[in-house]
Model the fold of this input.
Amino acid sequence: MEREENIYKKKPCETRGLAECYRFYKDKVGRNGIGYRTYAKVCREFNIRMANKIITESFEFRLPYRLGFLRIKAIDQKIVIKDGKLDMTKNPIDWEATWAYWRELYPGINIKNAKNYADKPLIPHINEQTNGKLIK
Done:
């Protein structure tokens, strides 16, 4: 029974930066480990290469201990028209363009009284910088 109680008294290990990770590494490896500059250089190089691979090759990096994945996923944006109207449920809204258009249609509109205008048209975000793809 005493052994079980000791299990729950352990404090979780938190690392908040490169210096703390290095201290943790040094405690585990001892005197045979590499120096801080080399450790930092390896970590930074790994992060740069992994970020470039994720961005340029759509690489999916699987994190250990079932923590999930790091990835950038591009989804084709679909424009759907239902009953002669643009369906905006799946598309992001370009709020800057929408508010500019609303100010032309409804002079004096603002955030407080916008609810009073029914069926206001919404302008979809076209995502020109990503060739029309949604990034998730």
Observations:
- The longest helix spans residues 36-57.
- The CA atoms of residues 51 and 112 lie 42 Å apart.
- The chain has a mean pLDDT of 81.
